[in-house]
């Protein structure tokens, strides 16, 4: 089923923007590291957080769960990703949709992996960390907290 471009690219009755849009280059986003070999570069919108994530070889994000829905998009490299008891090797173009509170984790082997995590709503623990850094006068281009 096709959707008309007029319906998708609506130009009438747009409403009034509440904030200015902005361009962000990933190299300008300060890295955040919770564990060695795993680097986050989070970009925050009003209701979504997009996290540029780089795994060094032989790095693990241990099994965890959270209240936010998450979508993972692999951009380059590969890693083993598990949801509950099921593990798959994911490569460029693979995606994972993780509902709230579903246990999951990932690990690289001999190669690195570059992926994007999308959290909706924004990941609470990452927001708290960014707020602590902001309060400590660390400058980051993370959007508005």
Shape type: globular
Please write the CATH class name: Mainly Beta
* Category from helices, strands and their pairing: mainly beta
At the fourth CATH level, what is the homologous superfamily?
Jelly Rolls
| Number of helices, where a helix is a run of at least 4 consecutive DSSP H or I residues | 2
Structurally, the number of domains stands at 1
Q: How big a fraction of the residues is strand?
A: 35-45%
Q: Mean pLDDT, nearest integer?
A: 88
Q: Indicate the CATH topology.
A: Jelly Rolls
Please summarize the sheet with the most strands: 9 strands, antiparallel
Could you explain the architecture of this structure?
- The chain has 145 residues and is mostly beta strands.
- The chain has a single domain (26-135), classed as Jelly Rolls.
- The protein is built from 2 helices and 9 strands.
- It has helices at residues 5-8, 124-135; strands at 32-35, 38-44, 49-55, 60-64, 69-83, 86-91, 95-98, 104-107, 113-120.
- Strand 5 and strand 6 form a beta hairpin.
- The longest helix is centred in the last third of the chain and has 12 residues, at 124-135.
- It is globular, with a radius of gyration of 17 Å.
- The protein starts with a helix and ends in a 10-residue tail after the last helix.
Briefly summarize what is shown.
The protein is mostly beta strands and 145 residues long.
Annotation keywords:
single chain, mainly beta, nine-stranded antiparallel sheet, 2 helices, 41% strand
Topology:
Elements: H1 5-8, E1 32-35, E2 38-44, E3 49-55, E4 60-64, E5 69-83, E6 86-91, E7 95-98, E8 104-107, E9 113-120, H2 124-135
Antiparallel strand pairs: 1-2, 2-3, 3-9, 4-8, 5-6, 5-7, 5-8, 5-9
